[in-house]
Amino acid sequence: MTVSFVSVVAFFLFPQLKLIYSDCEHNIRNINAEKGNYTYCVYHSIEEVLNVLVPALKQQPPLPEVMQVYHKDPMVMKAVMPIYNRKPFIVIEGVQGTKKTLLAKRLAQEINGTYIRNPPFVMEKLYHYLDDHCSQVSSAFMAFGNYIVAEQAKKLLPTHPVVLDKYWHGVTAFNLAKAAQDLGIEIPQPSSLVYYWPEDLLMPDLAFYIMVSDEVLKFRFHKTFKKVYPKDFRNNIHKALMRMTSPKMWRINGNLKRIDVESQISMRVYKMFSRMLFPEIHPKRLTA
């Protein structure tokens, strides 16, 4: 995945967004209703993402380039990483105001890893543009961002630990909460297939969920004069994240002092990945 490819997608898509906006909200309620994914703007494959984006690219589509990037060998698309000879892939999730970005950067620095942001920097302007547009299109681009950062992570993992700031967990939980708010529906029950991890998306080795109380969030947003998400919206994000079990979300108490929050995260990382982070301390066992 290259910057030029994303730029091409953005260049051709912008003029088409207004053309499909009028029909989009209607489609959210009706497309693939039995499966439930599009109702909630949740995507479980790059094909599902493209099923939403391709109509927006019909006039001047860079579709062949899209297909060349993602229609790879099936084993590559499964993104199966080797058990040895690579570094850990760690994700940090949390609602706005939990300091997850700062915590992700600090962890990457501590373990001599690489910090990656999501949405990718190259898509930042596009995401801002889509904020006031169709939920289905904007959520598809959020999902598209997951695949871009996954490609970045795969290139780095053979030699560097990767700490990712927001991934499929957070994007999906946000989309579920937004659908519940916009359409007046409940988020799916814990047994729903909506919470299953996409088979063609690189799965993290460890995912943290930074949990912060309403009181602490309000205090932090009051200091920065930012608007906090409504309580019902935050509660739906929380419920969605707690219903994701593959991979499991490790809950971190974000109400504590930053040094104590960092300590919780570091202890779990070192406990799980000491062999991957420090292979020289754990030499391979020789067999006859």
Describe this structure in words.
The protein is of the alpha/beta class and 288 residues long. The protein is 51% helix and 8% strand. It contains 11 helices and 5 strands, in the order ααααβαβααβαβααβα. It has helices spanning 3-30, 46-53, 63-70, 74-78, 100-110, 124-130, 135-156, 168-183, 214-224, 231-242, 258-277; strands at 89-93, 114-117, 162-165, 206-211, 249-253. The chain has a 5-stranded parallel beta sheet, with helices on both faces. Helix 7 runs antiparallel to helix 8 (168-183). The protein is globular, with a radius of gyration of 20 Å. The termini are far apart. The model is unreliable at 1-36 and 59-78 (pLDDT under 50).
Query: How many extended strands?
Result: 5
Q: How much helical structure, as a percent, in the residues?
A: 40-55%
Structural class: alpha/beta
- Categorize the overall geometry: globular
Question: What does the radius of gyration come to?
Answer: 20 Å
Uncertain stretches: 1-36, 59-78
- Give the helix tally: 11
Largest beta sheet, briefly? 5 strands, parallel
Lateral arrangement of strands in the main beta sheet: 2-3-1-4-5
Distance from N terminus to C terminus (CA atoms, Å) equals 43 Å
Order of helices and strands: HHHHEHEHHEHEHHEH
Q: In what range is the share of β-strand residues?
A: 5-15%
Give average pLDDT, whole number: 75
